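Renewal narrative, Specific Aim 1. Our central claim is that a sequence can be written position by position from structural information alone. The example that follows is taken directly from our test logs and has not been curated for this report. It begins with the structure tokens describing the chain, in the order in which they were read.
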């Protein structure tokens, strides 16, 4: 009894989470929330509250948010597997694209406001400062993934090739973390925490832990028992050689159920 109440509660919790995530407001809300760090940074810069070096602070903030969105996008599949909330998958592409968006803001702030489009100096930086080279590598991977993120590209590349290519997102994540570790001076724990999270997500992908009830593809697509027609033709139909009509377990015909 207690078990069935608990399991009904957990089904309701998952169903409620999935219903919220599937609602037509969910994507606009997540989209708007993802723009808040940008608006907030611009506001702080405008009001002069971004510190003594506002350009460097903007470069740092956008880099940090690029890495955060990348890790959040990577965390959605493990979260879906752990909680069984299948609706989380809807947001993977959007959040991955936000990682790319913040990386673009990061790069353009660096090129336009930090280096004033001084291309020889930028090239010197890329070659001479290894953390910039690594950051550029991460950016090139993110650009490739963003360019191939459309449904059309999935079709053109074929599911298998597309998935193989998009596994490179972990390389981008690790390169982003390495970029962060390399640029900080001295021993700092923050970049190491980001790297540990990225390695943990990669490890989860390799050795997934499944807790509680699952919503893998079979479960998700499965119709509740009792609503699936079963092919148990009436004896008369078989004798007459007619094609058997699917029936529900209670014997009624699906054609007669609304
Ligand atoms: C496109 C090539 C890139 C360039 C040229 C670049 C350049 C920079 C620069 C100049 C800084 C500031 C360094 C300082 O504190 O003096 C920085 C910081 C940072 N970048 Fe990048 N970056 C690039 C790509 C990326 C990418 C793709 C990511 C994330 C996936 C990223 C994440 C970060 C982070 C987390 C920081 C440190 C923020 C902090 O100190 O709080 N960068 N980057």
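The sequence written for that structure reads:
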């Amino acid at each position: 009894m207690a078990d069935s109440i608990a399991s009904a509660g957990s089904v309701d919790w998952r169903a409620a989470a999935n219903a919220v995530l599937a609602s037509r407001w969910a994507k606009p809300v997540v989209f708007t929330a993802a723009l808040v760090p940008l608006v907030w940074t611009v506001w702080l810069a405008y009001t002069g509250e971004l510190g003594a070096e506002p350009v460097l602070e903007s470069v740092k903030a956008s880099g940090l948010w690029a890495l955060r969105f990348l890790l959040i996008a990577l965390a959605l599949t493990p979260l879906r597997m752990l909680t069984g909330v299948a609706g989380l998958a809807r947001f993977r592409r959007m959040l991955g694209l936000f990682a790319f968006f913040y990386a673009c803001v990061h790069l353009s702030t660096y090129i336009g406001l930090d280096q004033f489009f001084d291309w020889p100096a930028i090239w010197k930086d890329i070659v001479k400062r290894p953390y910039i080279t690594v950051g550029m590598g991460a950016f090139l991977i993110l650009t490739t993934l963003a360019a191939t993120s459309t449904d059309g590209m999935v079709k053109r590349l074929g599911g298998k090739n597309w998935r193989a290519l998009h596994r490179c997102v972990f390389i981008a994540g690790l390169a982003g973390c390495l970029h962060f570790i390399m640029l900080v001076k001295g021993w700092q724990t923050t970049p190491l925490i980001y790297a540990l999270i990225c390695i943990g997500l990669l490890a989860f992908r390799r050795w997934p832990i499944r807790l509680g009830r699952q919503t893998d593809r079979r479960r998700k697509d499965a119709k509740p028992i009792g609503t699936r027609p079963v092919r148990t033709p009436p004896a008369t139909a078989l004798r007459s050689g007619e094609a058997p009509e699917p029936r529900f377990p209670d014997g009624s015909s699906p054609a007669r159920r609304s």
